[in-house]
Amino acid sequence: MLGTRLFATALSVYRSFSTKSGDKVTYGVQKIYKRKKNARIQWTDQQKQIIYAIRGRKSVFVTGSAGTGKTFLLEHIIKLLRKQYRPSQVFVTASTGVAACALKGQTLHSFAGIGFQMADRDTLLNRVFSDRKACSRWKKAKALVIDETSMLDAQTFDNLEFIARNIRQVDSPWGGIQLEVSGDFFQLPPVKSKGCFQNSSKDDKEFAFEADCWNSSFHLQVELEEVHRQSDPQFIKLLQSIRRGKVGPEELEYLERFRSLTTTDSSMVPEIYPRNADVKRVNEDRMKSLNNEVLVYSAVDSGIEARRKLEGIVPYELALCLGARVMLTKNLNPWRKLVNGATGTIVGFSNIDGVNEDMFTDDEDGEEDVLTDDDVDDETIDVAMSRDGLLPMVEFDMGTTMVIKPATWVVKEGDKVVAERKQIPLMLAWAVSIHKCQGMTIDRLKTDLSKVFEYGMAYVAMSRVRSLEGLHLSGLDPFKIKAHPKVERFYESLAIEKDENCEPDYIKPKEDSRSIPFDIPNKKSFGRRKFRFSLTRLVSSR
Ligand SMILES: Nc1ncnc2c1ncn2[C@@H]1O[C@H](COP(=O)(O)OP(=O)(O)OP(=O)(O)O)[C@@H](O)[C@H]1O
């Protein structure tokens, strides 16, 4: 493995020296340096506070509207936690397989070893006790990351806390595991409440924040306020209204006015549907209508359960043809906006030998791209994936053209990879489901909101785009844009806490805060509650 990495690194450096001429000879090395320098992120104060708290080994719940950088921050926090503890002591999970794969983690269920059959908490505990590996994961864990909590139910959250305490034999929340939980409850709710739009009875716990242990699980709960995905303040305001299910005549009029100005060719724009059947139908019809030769990429699997475990995350067979509209399903190059959700058109199929040259596509400013360490694993291209070893060349809507190499999806149980699939990180994108696009940034989309059947669906669909120019909207029915009343109350309680503590003894994070986590007088006397009050503007109602 190390040998392959070294070889690939050497190869990529060699290419950047050998394939270019004149004053660009040393360019590859310079570019790597420049990238690293440019890659410094300007964290917002709230994001810094969370990072600071994580370094102080506090458990944190991070929420916020779509595009406030929850996932972006989470990726950074995972790196921090892995340095803070040992990588094998940090478990990265998500409530859904798609979200787990995006973080190179595993589903929460698979980490926990509780299986999918409903049972009371004692039965679940026995299940985990009888699973040696699951038991060892719980005992070993120092930090547990859970993403997309909006889709996790209260009972599971409580059960897992009970299991953690009992297996670890430590009588503190989650048996002393540091938690980093992330999600926006105004987005898609737990699957249990599917097809809803009805209020459940008062005692019927649904969302994770209703779990008995929710408040005692966190030292700090923060609602990120600064939206990064969109920059137009009016659009951000509109999305906030939709998030909270409060679309009035003013918002409708604004949208209507904007719609008449939208001139983009909508045949190129992905259609976002609430139901998978519509997605499948539209994609198949559009592909047929092109009448071009279809290339089918069969995934390369390892692990006997790869098919079952990766079902619904990445397809075993991917059919593509010239002219097909596609969307990236992995983050390839964030600097060039080649991220999960970037759309484009297949403009050709390139022989594998041509790939590396094509990877050096010019940037808009005439600079070249180089392979960095992160790309090295992808160097091993499985030629057997498609007939003739042809790889799709995609012209992305933002201008870059790239040959897309296979990427790898892994399913882990603990530290062990139990299933692995190599496939081209693309999906047909004439149509996409709302569930599939949660978490994505999409440049332009078309959606008919008259078909939404779930809380948060309209908001998830509309908040994917960066600007209103990218949104082709129809069927906006104000009565179908609803926020769950329980969710509204939860966020109201966060806001009340924020107001009560609006002039917190604001502690600015220090550059190197790891050795002295909090510069607070009387540090020893600070329990969870005091810490909360002094650190952040938004805290739990414990
Ligand atoms: N501090 C920051 N400065 C600049 N850009 C940022 C910052 N934080 C996040 N971003 C950018 O904001 C965009 C949205 O981030 P991200 O996808 O993490 O949001 P999110 O809150 O997880 O959204 P969603 O709820 O829709 O999944 C990304 O393109 C990310 O690079």
UniProtKB/TrEMBL annotation:
Its cofactor is Mg(2+). Keywords: ATP-binding, DNA damage, DNA recombination, DNA repair, DNA-binding, Helicase, Hydrolase, Isomerase, Nucleotide-binding. InterPro entries: AAA+_ATPase, DNA_helicase_pif1-like_DEAD, P-loop_NTPase, Pif1-like_2B_dom, PIF1_helicase. Transmembrane segments: none annotated. GO terms for molecular function: 5'-3' DNA helicase activity; ATP binding; ATP hydrolysis activity. PANTHER family: ATP-DEPENDENT DNA HELICASE. This is ATP-dependent DNA helicase.
